[in-house]
Amino acid sequence: MLNKVLENVSTIAIGGHIRPDGDCVGSCVGLGQYIRENYSDKTVDIYLKDIPESFHFLNGTETILESVDNEEKIYDLFISLDCGDTDRLEYTFWEENPEEFYRFYRDKLIVKGAKPNAAHLRLAKLEQQGKLRAVVTQNIDGLHQAAGSKTVYELHGSTLRNYCTRCGKFYDVDFIANSTGVPRCTECGGIVKPDVVLYEEGLDEEVLSGAVDAIRHADTLIIGGTSLVVYPAAGLIRYFRGDNLVVINMQPTGADASADLCIAKPIGQVLSEDVSLD
């Protein structure tokens, strides 16, 4: 549903009232990042109110405005986030309220119809040419693999993979999308859980180890389409020991000061076929 709406708009505002724990900061920034990465031709502004002092560092790393009362800007679409939604993505919530979890998950996290953009396709081509060792991503949509990338470390998992918590049987995304209530394994009756990292869960150690190894041994590290505000993923750049650090992002990031090259353009534009990376 969201993808169809986004195709028909150019300017987007994302807003949310911040709770004392600041959870909505991550939700707003995360959605803004997703739109920028997958719809590089869109303009996205994020509006937050009552930003906790501990999150003041976000100012400057995203287009964050304190009030929507800005008469100079008119948007095609305004997305208001329910900051309580992050509770529904906690492991405890999955355990204690499975029916509500899956209702929310089907409605909000399963995105159908999304296709790889220019950045996804170019990264896959670079890998095929032997110039790219791996992709490390926080996205859970599987678009890098859809573009042809083979070595992809999905830090937060993927909505395309689902497993029975009892016997381990694999199920694809359609099984969850087309199910009702709590999806159950057809073999043993166990609950089928999405292979995504929920709040309160740690990152997969094998995936994290692979990502760290790829970054540690890279000659060049390209950071694209992220403002580096979501941890622990943002902290992985400390493992980089190579010669060239490149940051491609519309807004400033915390890595700009140490980068050898900063490009303030959409990553899809920068990695398009008319840009030489030789």
Task: Describe the overall structure.
- With 278 residues, the chain is an alpha/beta fold.
- The chain has helices at 2-6, 23-38, 91-96, 98-108, 118-128, 143-147, 173-177, 205-216, 267-270, and strands at residues 11-17, 43-49, 64-65, 77-80, 135-137, 152-154, 157-164, 170-171, 192-196, 220-224, 244-248, 261-263.
- The strands form four sheets. The protein has a four-stranded parallel beta sheet, with helices on one face.
- β5 (135-137), α6 (143-147) and β6 (152-154) form a beta-alpha-beta unit.
- The protein starts with a helix and ends in an 8-residue tail after the last helix.
- Mean pLDDT is 81; it is low at 18-23 and 50-71.
What sequence of helices (H) and strands (E) makes up the elements? Answer: HEHEEEHHHEHEEEHEHEEEH
Q: What level of helicity do the residues show?
A: 25-40%
Alpha plus pi helix count: 9
The count of strands amounts to 12
Mean pLDDT: 81
Shape call: globular
Strand content: 15-25%
Poorly predicted tracts of residues: 18-23, 50-71
Strand order, sheet with most strands: 3-2-1-4
